[in-house]
Amino acid sequence: MAIPIITVNNLVKDYDNFRAVKGISFEVHEGEIFGLLGPNGAGKSTTLEIIETLRKKTSGTITVAGLNLDESPDAIKNIIGVQLQASGYYPGLNLLQLVELFAGLYNQEVHAIELLKTVNLEEKAKAKFKDLSGGQKQRFSVATTLINKPKVVFLDEPTTGLDPQARRNLWELIKKINAEGTTVIITTHYMDEAEYLCNRIAIVDSGEIVALDTPDNLIDHLVASGFERPKQVKNANLEDVFIQLTGKHLRED
Ligand code: ADP
Ligand code: MG
C-alpha cells in the first residue's frame, strides 16, 4: 500500500497579480522517487520551495510526514533535505569543513568522511568547493542534503548542465539514496532521466498538473490514443555513442 509522505491540496501561489500555481493537488508516496516535469515557468520550483517552507503559499494545505506546514514548519525543516544553490557555500572552506559547518547548523553528529564517501568524494575532502568540477559540486550538494538524515530529499534540476557521465553518476547516487529509504522529489528537463529514475511523474504546465502517473502508464496512454512516432527509432542514440566513446564508468567527473 502506498503511504503518502507529502500531501498537497489545492495549492495556489500568486506573485502579485500573476497566478504561478493554480490550485494543484498531489501526493508523494513514502519511499518513491517522484518527478515534477514541465517547461520553464510551469511552477515547479515555486511548488517545491513552498513545501520546503522557503516560500509562502497563497492558499492550500500541505502536510509532510503528517506535519501541517502552517503549524509545524520547523519540524518539517528538520526532516527534509534541501539542496542549496552553489552560492550558499563558503568558497574558502574545504569539503570536510563545509560538512562540519552544516552539521553544526543542523545540530547533528556527522561522520564527514563517511558522508563524502557516499557521494564518492572522499578523495576531495581537502579540496575547496570552488575547485570541484560541475558533477562533483552537484554530488557534494546532494551530500549536504543528507546531513540531517532526512525522510524526504528535494532536488531541483540537480543534473542541469552536467555532462552525460556526471549525469549518470548522479542518477546512481539518487537511486542509492532512495534505496536506503529516503523519498526523493526531483525536477528535471531530461525525459530519459525521469523515465529512468521516477516511480511516478506529475507533468506541470502553466501552474496546473496536466498528468500524473508512472512513466510506463503515461507512455501507454499516449500510445493507446493512437500516437505513433514518425520514424523508427534506432537501437542507440547519439548519447550512447558519446558514452561508449568517452567511457561511462572509468571516467571521474
Ligand atoms: P519552474 O521552476 O517550473 O521553471 P517557477 O516556479 O520558477 O517555474 O516559476 C513559475 C512562474 O512564477 C514563472 O512565470 C516565474 O516567472 C514566476 N516567478 C517565480 N518566482 C517569482 C518571483 N519571486 N516573483 C514573481 N514571479 C515569480
Ligand atoms: Mg525551476
Please give a structural write-up:
The chain has 253 residues and is of the alpha/beta class. It has a single domain (4-83, 145-246), classed as P-loop containing nucleotide triphosphate hydrolases (Rossmann fold, 3-Layer(aba) Sandwich). The protein is built from nine helices and ten strands. A six-stranded mixed sheet has the order 6-7-8-3-9-10, sandwiched between helices. Strands 2-1-4-5 form a four-stranded antiparallel sheet, covered by helices on one side. Strand 7, helix 6 and strand 8 form a beta-alpha-beta unit. Helix 3 crosses helix 4 (112-118) and helix 5 runs parallel beside helix 6 (164-179). The longest helix is centred in the C-terminal third of the chain and has 16 residues, at 164-179. The protein is globular. The termini are far apart. Adenosine-5'-diphosphate (ADP) binds next to helix 1. Magnesium ion (MG) is lined by residues 44-45, 156.
